[in-house]
Design goal:
The complex is a heterodimer of chains A (427) and B (226).
Chain A (H helix, E strand, L loop, with lengths): L4 H13 L1 H4 L24 E7 L17 H19 L2 E8 L4 E7 L6 H9 L4 E6 L2 E4 L2 E2 L12 H5 L2 H7 L6 E6 L13 E6 L10 H11 L16 E6 L1 E2 L8 E3 H13 L4 E4 L1 E2 L4 H12 L3 E5 L17 E4 L11 E2 L5 E5 L3 E6 L1 H18 L20 H8 L20
Parallel strand pairs in A: 7-9, 7-12, 8-9, 12-14, 14-15, 15-16
Antiparallel strand pairs in A: 1-3, 1-4, 2-3, 5-11, 5-13, 6-18, 10-11, 17-18
Helix pairs in contact in A: 7-10, 8-9, 10-11
Chain B lengths: L1 H8 L7 E9 L3 E2 L2 E2 L6 E9 L4 E12 L3 E15 L6 E13 L5 E13 L3 E8 L8 E14 L2 E13 L3 H4 L3 E13 L2 E10 L12 E10 L1
The chains are: A alpha/beta (427), B mainly beta (226).
Chain lengths: 427, 226
Amino acid sequence: MFARLPTLLAALALLALAGPVLAQAPATSRPAADLPAMASAGVAERQVLVLLRLPPEHFRADGGYAGGYGGGVGRAARQRIAERLAREHGLALAEGWPMPLVGLDCFVMTAPPGRAPAQVAAELARDREVAWSEPMHVYRAEGAAAGPPNDPLYRLQPAAREWRLADLHQIATGKDVRVAVVDSGVDTAHPDLAGRIQLSQDFVPDHPGRAELHGTGVAGVIAAVEGNHLGIVGVAPEARLMALRACWQPGEGSSTICDTLSLAKALHFAVEHDAQVINLSLAGPPDLLLGRLIDAAQARGAVVVSAADPRLARGGFPASHPGVVAVTDDPARGGEIPAYVAPGRDVPTTQPGGRWSLVAGSSFAAAHVSGLYALMRQRDPHERGPPALVPAHTGGPIDACATLLRVSAPCRACACAQPASYAAARP
Amino acid sequence: MAAAACALAAPTLARAQVGATVTAASDFRLRGVSLSDRRAALSFSLASDQANGLYFGGTATLTDTAHEGPEFLGHSEYIGYAHRGARGPGIDLGISRQDYRVYLERRYRVRYTQVYAGLIGDNLRTHVSWLPNYPRDGVDVIYADADAAMRPAPNWRVSGHVGVLNRLGGAYERDGPRHRADLRLGLAREFEGSEVELAWVAVSAKPRQHPEEARGGLVLSASVFF
């Protein structure tokens, strides 16, 4: 069959090295970038996710171990199944992404125009090889710019007054608490975020735009540096941010959007890297895959905070998911949807290009609460799950001082323990 | 064992994930010891994972002998069950059979059955195996090992393996050292449908049949997955 094994060894090595070239055949992974460029969520709205079971790593006689990702042999088997499914259902296989934390291998397939993704997903789900299938959902960030760039001061921050930020920081600053900002791109070079960003990862490289308004604003509310004579003060100014770009802003002035897969990739990364607080300043329809990943995050002790959208049932997803801390900026809605009320109006925060600006929306209310949880985690790092927040009154805004004091050691001398009148906003 | 695997798998075979691998390696090592006299080897593996957690597979290996050309070195099979829930580590239980004719100047045969149990974590896998009557009747071996892997960058994988073999009973002269550790550190580049790995493999003590062998060495391998 072969003359000499070394020759075959060399041939196999060449074959292995040629893998990326050979893999350019149609219907294999990658081509999200090969698909026609998406103006916004256009293609995503024609896509379905096909979830195949990813078996746990187990003994193999050849000793191979791939660290939970199933190894090449299992991956090849699932790729083959995905290719068959795509062929049989007339779909284009776009890309795949293993998610060992939830025991799933996720493949993205694009339906031709005119076919409803929900119907395609229902057909795919009937196949015995498929764990489940679902349409790719689109999520929108719950915030917007509220005015032109200005020269913000600490005193302008609603949290400085309403949450007595300086008093909170006598108790905790969120030191070294890992907060995942699953959002659009964060300006990692912003001077008010200097040293706060532990890592930055882009899960939507096919939508260029490294630093974006929404993600940079959310990051600033959570962890802008304190005492640097610049801009604002984050709620948790010593937290360590994971800037996970899962959303993008399709164009100037357009809203920030994300899809199921980009969010799933970022959530998986956040859980895998032990995020203690995960901020999701977005809302959309319920999603099984994202729900599983949120469950996995909560099972590992992470607090998941989400913006609530009053226009969606129960505030939308993920705010409506069990265990998720739902937050709105609208005090009038606090009693209507099951959500906490936090500062989210006229919030000065960081913006790309080293600027600051006023923003508004539940996105930024959620960011305030993520910061507050970072403070609580610093005081009580072993707490599992989200401890309840203390509202000032039923359905009213969060009393941040009372919330933090509840998880802290008794502190009669802390300003937070004094009546609010003592706590003038201090720069 | 193959018949048992087929019988157990039959009801769920339609939902199996079946894959094959061809691996060419510069050496074939078992628990750190070269069975191919540090010569190149070619392995063919089949693996099947069922939806219910059952799995089984096998490997056949050829080596490139010095004088007779390619020659069958041996085979191994395994069948087991793995399960991992939403939280905490998973479990892995099974049985494996290995049968190799070690290619050395003086041939000898390595043939044993091992029963194993292990825990599966996110990036770590541990097993304890019992090898009854190995290397000969009346001598048992316990082998404990741990594997870890991480991905420092997309498509790159760093893996580590450490194992300790403990012989229960027997005589030193006849059966070799009572304890022996093996270590493996690998760096792999993953491609679509294939991978290349360079690994450093070492043992703490040489088996008595391998007096000439170095205790450590590099192994280059290339695998193609089907």
